[in-house]
Amino acid sequence: MTTPLHGADDRTGRLPTASPLFVTAEGLPLRLRQVGEEDLPELHRLDREVFEEHAYPYFTLRQLYDLFRADLFVLDDGRTFHGYVMAGVNADREGWILGLAIDRQWRGHGLGRRLMAESLRRLRAQGVRAVALTVEPSNATAIELYASLGFRRVDERAGYFGSDADRLIMRLPLD
Q: Could you report how far apart the first and last alpha carbons of the chain are, in Å?
């Protein structure tokens, strides 16, 4: 069972498209909504743009969508995605943030915080006890965001994503 988004249609779980949930300082109306299958090409475009060579291959993104679509959200303006967050829950009821991406031109506008807040709210509603994530050790902006949300560094793993891809592991207790 999925928890509806604030203001979402009870039948679909999607936010109504008529009223924006979030408006940037520039007045651009962005809507927070769950991803549909038809959105995968645009999601993949954003993932490639943000993560470049570290982006999910399309087939992996497709399988993650199949597994975790209830916890995959985008911020879009009706034409273009400007951010996404994807979470998953393991058998121990621990959540993982599998991806957070914000279009480079929209960084610094609170979009990552908004996506994370919705993801954490939904994970809590599902009874998740804690949430973990990985982050590149040199990504000070992301580390600062996660720390401001209550995440704490619990480990650093050399070669987590391959020989040149070290990661910090951060964790947030929810109970």
A: 20
